[in-house]
Amino acid sequence: MWTLNRAASQFTPPAFSGGRGGDDIDRLFITHAANGTLIIGTETNGLKAWAYTPGRELTIPVGRDTTMRAASRWDGERIVAEGRQGDMTMHEVMSLSPDGHTLTIEVMTTTPNDTINNRLVYTLGQPVGACEQWAMPCKEFPQEVR
Description:
Layout: E1 2-4, E2 27-32, E3 38-42, E4 50-52, E5 57-61, E6 67-75, E7 78-85, E8 88-96, E9 102-110, E10 115-124
């Protein structure tokens, strides 16, 4: 699990789906599948997971109800994704620190009216705190035997 380091990040809310619009997400779950696909999920089901398969164009979320087609590729140790939806373009770069403990996602979105740059910095395995504080908090249920 990756936890957003807000102090090290610079973003304009709403900062997600990876800085492309949508809810701010403090935690990410990322799987790198054997076929090379990166699957990025969030802590809650309020935002759809998305995936990048380098060399292919896939549909990714860019807000709660909008998607775009984006192509991704490896650029050395970084994955670069670029897409377009109508008059909006997106350029996203995901990179790991040399020790593998810091993930940086840099996203530039451009519309006819503006260009927004977001830089989201995540730390691997940072403590998540008590489950009562999670976006989908835990609950105690009675342990009755019937």
